[in-house]
Design a protein that fits this description.
Rossmann fold; Nucleotidyltransferase, domain 5; 16 helices; alpha+beta; globular; 699 residues; Dna Ligase, domain 1; 9-stranded mixed beta sheet
């Protein structure tokens, strides 16, 4: 048998999504099952077996397997990781305590400091010193090992984050300490800053290494169990992991760099949205992914998601930069808020209706799921509003309890605000939709962009259901809902390349750039990245992207500049200066003449795409839920009941126009065509929802 199927598994906080593609990349099966938080592999296995059964296939037919999970993210947010100690250069014990030497909220007298995982009592030092050029000033004192081991034993450390001063320039001391610790304490999980984040800036480098060490034992155990369970079931191909940078990597790399798995699931959605945008010829897009636990919004320009070199983990103040734990890794830049189908609604002591960020999760989930949940959630509100057909939800495999949903809405909100269930559900919907629209507007403003001329690409289990309502508030007039939107992130995994990115610090001014030395550095980085990529994609052409991070002397942050795809020469100094000034002008209006330009970091990204997908041949098999031809919903504009048509998505063909309000049902989600919108199907199979209002204003 020739294994030709490729399968993707995305384990989210509420649901686990599965998508299967055939040899030409067409999606032929999808499945959505409830996540099993205590044993995530069990839910994934159930979903995979169901999807394979739908197409009469087995594990022997699978030739490619991609996996993404929120396990690392949740462990960091919920603080369920290992007991971590850190080891730094003598005299620099308080890197975490000092941090940026500033308050993220200048005038907040009750400011809550970010939780950086490692308390001062578990911060240790050893004598050693290397300068920023990599020269050894003080050799590593191996005689200090005995004392260090005693300290690690006393605090019962399970993992160690090693971050020596300027180890990015010379990792020898970190590597030697790792070897010594491994010899004397083989059960310790050890993360080196020179491996995890070999960049200047000790605070960010140490935080990234600490976060990696914190989740490494958990992820190593989970990934081993996941691989073993599927191997026992008959899977013979390698399992690749989705990374936060929008690519795939091997299990071995994921075990050593689990920090790169943070946000892996949401990144799959951004990859899907970028592909949909490229196929549709859209240059300016807002990706909108609303799942069961969170909503994620991402800006996509010219077919590429907005990228970042840093993000923050578990902010103390949700919308204030600097209030979380920084991590410097390649990541698709998006804003994520606690606004999903499972987000809880409540009334505070001042009588104000609030939604999220707390979630009912997968267990017990919304009250409508009949699994013991009693609090009102966004999904319960949607059931009360009539937006979810109880007979068609989750392909009919999950029974929706409409009475339980109405009771939860009444008990949690309606009775406290002297409303009926319908009015309270309408209020819950209004609040959560405005929360998501506000997050999108804020993300755009922080990026120096706007939303009004963008097309929204909506997916996720709840994205199409809320898309027109969020778009109206965000000022967006056009929406695309791709095929199989309910498992959008899993589908995105199948479009992602096997890739790996490396960033290293090597300081130079542009005027004194040593092109030979930099070429040697870049060649070494490319070779290292190629080794990782070839582990997951032994064949296929490789694509290499090179970049430099440049700034004016005295500035605190750099601008990323793309380098030529070749060795640098002295004549490239003028080219780099031109590119830097062009990018600087785009971000800050005008360059600063006569200033010295510095280059701090160098980056390479090596990628190999193993298959080109063909969405025009979408032949997904699956059971469609039974729906009626008419239903009654609550109009999102007026809050009043209104009759509307219900369509099966498979029956909506080219040339049809559906005027809102209307409901379009498919196996894993529902698209609500809001009042004032018209729906049609484009040549790629996307639902296109267009606002017919002359002006888009908040309802």
């Amino acid at each position: 048998m020739n294994p030709s199927l490729r399968i993707a598994v995305d384990i989210g906080g509420t649901f686990t999504d599965v998508a299967i593609a055939n040899s030409v990349g067409a999606i032929i099966a999808t499945n959505k099952t409830a996540t099993t938080p205590d044993t995530p592999t069990a839910g994934a296995m159930d979903g995979v077996k169901r999807a394979l059964s739908d197409i009469n296939a087995g594990f022997a037919d699978i030739g490619g397997f991609v996996h993404g999970t929120t396990l690392a993210t949740n462990a960091l947010i919920e603080r369920r990781g290992a007991v971590v100690a850190n080891v730094t250069t003598q005299g620099f014990r308080d890197i975490l305590e000092i941090a940026y030497e500033r308050r993220y909220s200048q005038y907040d007298i009750d400011i809550e400091k970010p939780d950086l995982i490692v308390p001062r009592s578990r911060c240790f030092t050893v004598p050693e010193r290397i300068d920023f050029k990599g020269n050894v000033l003080t050799s590593l004192d191996e005689g200090a090992l005995e004392s260090l081991l005693a300290q690690l034993d006393a605090c019962r450390a399970q993992a160690v984050a090693v971050c020596f001063l300027h180890a990015y320039a010379n990792p020898a001391h970190e590597q030697r300490l790792r070897d010594l610790l491994s010899t004397h304490r083989p059960d310790l999980h050890i993360s080196l800053s020179s491996d995890i984040s070999p960049e200047a800036r000790e605070f960010e480098r140490l935080c990234t290494t600490v976060a990696n060490a914190y989740v490494q034992p958990l992820m190593a155990t989970y990934l081993a169990e996941f691989a073993e369970e599927f191997a026992r079931a008959g899977l013979s191909c390698p399992i690749l992991m989705m990374t936060s940078g929008g690519g795939m990597t091997t299990l071995e790399t994921a075990r050593s760099h689990p920090i790169r798995l943070v946000e892996s699931g949401p990144c799959g959605g951004a990859v899907l949205a970028a592909k949909v945008a490229r196929d549709a010829g859209l240059n300016r897009v807002l990706s909108f992914d609303m799942g069961g636990t969170t909503a994620k919004l991402c800006l996509i320009d010219d077919g590429l998601p907005q990228m970042s070199r840093q993000f923050e983990i578990s902010r103390a103040a949700r919308f204030i930069k600097g209030s979380g734990m920084p991590a410097r890794i390649p990541v698709v830049e998006m804003i994520e808020i606690g606004a999903g189908g499972g987000s809880m609604a409540s009334v505070d002591t001042l009588g104000r209706l609030q939604v999220g960020p707390e979630s009912a999760g997968a267990d017990p989930g919304p009250a409508a799921f009949g699994k013991g949940g009693t609090g009102a959630t966004v999904t319960d509100a949607d059931v009360v509003l009539g937006n979810i057909d109880p007979d068609a939800f989750a392909e009919g495999r999950l029974t929706i309890d409409c009475d339980a949903a109405a009771k939860a809405v009444c008990n949690s909100v309606a009775h406290r605000l002297s409303m009926d269930a319908r009015e309270a559900a309408h209020g819950i919907s209004q609040i959560v939709d405005e929360n998501m629209a506000s997050a999108g507007r804020m993300h755009a403003v922080e990026s120096g962009k706007d939303l009004e001329d963008r097309v929204m690409i909506a997916f996720g289990g709840n994205g199409p259901l809320h898309a027109t309502r969020v778009a109206r508030r965000a000022g967006v007039r056009s929406i695309l809902v791709p095929p199989d939107p309910g498992v959008g992130s899993a589908v995105g995994f199948l479009h992602a390349p096997v890739s790996f990115e490396i960033v290293r610090s090597s300081y130079s001014t542009l005027a004194t750039l040593d092109s030979e030395a930099i070429n040697a550095l870049i060649d070494g980085m490319i070779a290292e990245a190629e080794t990782v990529v070839r582990g997951g994609a032994p064949e296929g052409d490789l694509e290499t992207r090179r970049a430099a991070f440049m700034r004016y002397k005295g500035q605190g942050h750099e601008i990323e500049i793309t380098l030529p795809d070749r060795a640098l020469c002295d004549e490239d100094r003028a080219v780099l200066l031109t590119h830097f000034e062009t990018e600087y002008r785009a971000q800050y209006s005008r360059p600063v003449p006569g200033m010295t330009v510095e280059i701090l970091n160098w980056a390479v990204r090596v990628a190999c795409r193993t298959i080109r997908t063909d969405d025009k041949q979408n032949t997904r098999h699956g059971r469609a839920g039974r729906v009626s031809s008419k239903t009654t919903i609550v109009c999102e504009r007026t809050g009043k009941p209104v009759d509307c048509d219900v369509f099966q998505r498979a029956e909506v063909q080219n040339g049809m126009t559906i005027s809102g309000p209307a409901v379009i049902v498919e196996p894993q989600t529902t698209t609500l065509v809001g009042s004032g919108f018209e729906a049609s199907v484009d040549r790629h199979g996307n639902l296109r929802l267009e606002s017919q209002d002359r002006e888009v204003v908040p309802s």
